[in-house]
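Thread title: Can someone regenerate the structure for this chain?

I was given the following input by a collaborator and told the matching structure tokens would be attached. They weren't. Posting the sequence so someone can regenerate them.
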Amino acid sequence: MWEIPKRDPIAKSPVSVLLLGNANGMLATTVEGLRKKLAQPLGEPEFFWIGGESTELPSEVPVTRIAVDSATGLGPAIQAAVAQSRHPILLMVPADWPIDENAITEFLRLIDTMDLVVGARVTRPIPWWRRTLDWVQIWSAWLLLGLEFEPRKTWFGSLGWRRRKAARWFFSLYFEDPESPLRMVRREILRQVPLQSKGSFVLVEMLAKTNHLEALLAETPVAWSTRLALEGWETDWAADARKLFTQPEFAANRLYPEVPIPPQNPMAEAVATSTESEAVSPTISPSVPSIP
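Best answer:
Regenerated them for you:
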């Protein structure tokens, strides 16, 4: 049995920002907005740009560019950025993300008690027929099975429907948007997760492996107005998913060590104490070697 301890509050700690993908000319604006929002008394945020063009690097704020090797892909590039980061909080965002200060505030509030927070992208209203269907399913599950489900917060239509179902069925990820590139995570968690995917499936892999480590995960809705996919990294999704399912790579150590749970029944404690006292002998037989 594992006892999950409470997480140390770190919301006021400095943040390392991982910018993903092409910036489309918005890198300087994104970096400056994040720098103002994430400025903390304990330190300024640091920035890593993964997979972007070096010609777009801003001169006002230092940004470390991490190149993506075509042979190994996006996963090892993210790991390289994590290894170089110095701050206890990691924020992953698209490089051209228009800053949403409310979303960052909510992320910082949740990361105090969680290990990883995902922003479920809200792109458009949920159609009436889908809301009606959800209402019927929620009440049927409650009346017939006693299960409680929350209404959905996002709606992408048929886009990526098979991928979201695959993430749920094969990797037990009950997220509405497991492919969201917007997320905040504790660095100590991500340093224990080897990322092996080449393309955008690495976002699902990150959740699957942190979930395997029994980390505390959360999801919160975030207003979204930019593109849904990471440009250039949508390929190899099925191949990466197949490799993770058949040949997963995991860290050697568990996130939370196994600790003994004392019995709650007083009678059980009394019986255990009595058994231990009877087992102890004042002498040791010479035919039985003593244990040092």
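Strands lie at 15-20, 46-50, 63-66, 89-94, 116-122, 183-186, 217-223.
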